[in-house]
Structures are given as C-alpha cells and as structure tokens.
Amino acid sequence: MRYVPFVEELNHEMFSVKRLAPGEWELSIDGEKVGCWSSLELYGGINLAICRATPQYRQAMKVRELNAEAWKKDTCIRDVKMWRLWNISKQSVLITLSRQEQTGSAMP
Hints:
This protein has helices spanning 6-9, 39-44, 55-103; strands at residues 14-15, 24-29, 32-38, 46-47. It is α+β, with helices and mostly antiparallel strands.
C-alpha cells in the first residue's frame, strides 16, 4: 500500500532464532520449505507475514478469494433488491398519477 506503511507498522509475524551456528538455514513449516536465511538474518528476525511461501499466506489468499466471491454475490443480490425497490416505487408513482388524473385532483 502506497500511502499506509502497512507492512512496516502493522503486518508483523516475526520469527527469530538465537545461538545458531554460522551458515545458511532452511525454514520449513508443516513440512513445507518456506525459505533459506543466514544465521545472522535469523538472529535479527525475519517477517514471515511478507513471505509468500508460508502455509499461512496461502490460507490467507484462499480466504481473500472466498471473501471476494461472497462480495460479488452480495453485490448482485443488493442490485436485484434495489431494482425491485425502484420498480415498485415507480409503479406506485404511476398509480398515484393515474388516480389523480381520474379524480381531476392536482398533486400537492
């Protein structure tokens, strides 16, 4: 996000390991490789929230897709309801105008 420092200020899932032997280390979550980092990087901490290889990230993307589908369906239902409401109100106005023409009364 361009105007909100979302990752820097809000999206933290920090993972750190202290006292590792120097070298490269592979991190796996639930048996799935997430990435490789140096012992120094792991000591300082890595933000798993921005790592797209984590099971958490994939789960979040699935939830995002489901929410998008639900939003589309909700929008469609809302559009149909609004069209029905508009159509009913339009018919009500026509009936009122028709009655006024029959009785010769003017609109207030």
